[in-house]
Write a structure and sequence with these properties.
The chain is built from 11 helices and 10 strands. It is α/β, with parallel strands linked by helices.
């Protein structure tokens, strides 16, 4: 029975070209070349023994056979698509995806975007927790973790999400007091307590000898951003974390001294030949979100 079936790619090419009445637009939609679409259509016409398109200069139209064939092919492709979606949904139905994420990513950045993921995969229950500890998937109850590190993670599979673009920021009223970069030494340095090396790294990069006497330590970037916005001092904070505050003006960048910190962000999964579908769909979605930040 199946010997009479034409190749699926030729049916996809025919359906797309018929909707657009253009081989070029079909090629763009299917991410192939114009020539590939033309070849697929020609092969389908040879398989059927009929012409499906009337080709003229800068104009494409369906033949009577093409017009009869199109709705049936569209219905068949829709049936395949629905059947595929149903199987994928059943695989994720009532499943739990446990994700452990850095506090800095979770609070300001990830949670506001999770509704879009929920809309895509409504049957997938997400258990989101925060942590910045070393991940041992044999001991930790999570499917995916997101961490920052100065070197590639070990004992797990990983994908690098982005480097860390670190910004020197402060409140607008403090920025008015910073006439030159040397004036940083007259400010309170707001320090990330688990990343005490960031200020020395930054000062070396910009050629500043740090002599500031006043310092204030905090454990998370969220705390640093709030302290900086309130005028307590100057802070080094990843750009992605303070996009909204930079946009509304509650934080400003007083000097255009960009700095890529030694840290990079990674999505981690247990070592395995095959990822569960529930983990793969989240990682695919995550890579979409991070695409503007990836180098």
């Amino acid at each position: 029975m199946h010997s009479s079936f034409p190749p699926l790619n030729s049916l996809l090419a025919f359906e797309s070209a018929s909707r657009h009445l253009s081989f070029s637009r079909a090629a763009d939609e299917l991410f192939v070349t114009h020539g590939a679409i033309s070849k697929q259509i020609k092969g389908l016409e040879n398989h059927l023994g009929v012409a499906l398109f009337l080709r003229s200069h800068r104009k494409l139209a369906l033949t009577d056979d093409g017009k009869r064939y199109l709705p049936q092919i569209q219905s068949a492709l829709q049936t395949i698509s629905h059947a595929t979606d149903e199987i994928k949904s059943q695989q994720m139905h009532a499943q739990t995806l446990a994700i452990n994420v850095l506090p800095s990513l979770t609070i300001n950045w990830l949670i506001p975007r999770m509704e879009e993921f929920k809309q895509r995969y409504p049957h997938l229950y997400v258990d989101l927790s925060i942590g910045d500890f070393a991940v041992d998937f044999e001991q930790t109850r999570c499917d995916i973790a997101i961490r920052s590190a100065t070197r590639s993670p070990k004992d797990c599979s990983y994908i690098k999400l982005m480097d860390e673009d670190l910004c020197l920021v402060c409140a607008p009223q403090l920025a008015a007091q910073l006439k030159s970069i040397d004036d940083i030494n007259h400010m309170t340095l707001l320090k990330h307590t688990t990343r005490s090396e960031l200020w020395p790294y930054w000062s070396e990069k910009v050629g500043l000898t740090l002599t500031a006497q006043q310092q204030f330590g905090m454990e998370h970037f969220y705390m640093l951003s709030q302290a900086a916005a309130s005028g307590m001092g100057v802070a080094l904070i990843p750009r992605f974390f303070i996009e909204e505050q930079l946009a509304d003006g509650s934080l400003v960048i007083p000097f255009s001294s960009s700095f890529i910190s030694p840290y990079s962000y990674y999505v981690l999964t247990p070592k395995s030949a095959n990822l569960p579908l529930k983990a793969q769909v989240f990682i695919d979605w995550l890579l979409e979100l991070f695409s503007p930040y990836r180098n």
